[in-house]
Design a protein that fits this description.
By secondary structure, this protein is of the alpha/beta class. 45% of the residues lie in helices and 18% in strands. The protein is built from eight helices and seven strands, in the order E-H-E-H-H-E-E-H-E-H-E-E-H-H-H.
Amino acid sequence: MKLAVVTAGLTQPSSSRLLADRLAEAVTRQAQAEVRVIELRDLAVDIANNFVTGFPNARLREAIEAVTEADGLIAVTPIFSGSYSGLFKSFFDVIDNGALAGKPVLIAATGGTARHSLALEHALRPLFAYLRAVVVPTAVYAASEDWGGAADAFTDGLGPRIARAAEELADLLLHRRPRAQAKEEAEEEVVPFEQQLAALRPLG
C-alpha cells in the first residue's frame, strides 16, 4: 500500500511536519505502507506557476500523482486566520476534483492555541467532503501547549488522539481494495453498449 503525507508547514523545523511524521508512524505500525511525504513549502512557486500557465511542471506533477495514486492520505496544515493555509488550499485546487473520490483521508492541523481546533470541522472536513474523499471520524489538532507535556515522551494528551485517528485510517486502508485492483474490477464490470442494447430488444 502507498500512504501520501501532505504537510503545509512553512518553517523548518515545522510543527506541522512533526505532527505529520507522528501520524504516519502511528498508521504504519498498524498497516504496512510505503510513505511519501510532500512538503508544500518546497512546491510553493510551482503551485503558483500552475495557476498562471494552467499546467503543472514535472516536480508538481510528481507530487500530484503521489497523492492521487496513494491508497490513503494524511493532510496537515497550520491554521491561519481560523482556516487552512492558502498554500494548502492552493495545492488541492490544482488537483482534479474527482481524483480523491473514495480515498481514505486523515486530516490534522497545528496552531498556537486550542481555540482554533474547530477549523478542522468547519474548513478541512468540508474541503475533503467536496473532493469526495472518505475522511476518518477523528481529526487531530495540535496546539502549542500540546507539545512537550508529560503524558508521554513528547506530548500531553496528543498521543491518544494520534493513536485513535491512526487506527481509523489503518482500518480503512486494510479493508479497502488496492487502487489497481479496484480499477481492474471496474473495467471488468463495464458492459459494452451493443450488449446492453441487445438485452433490451424483444425476444422472437
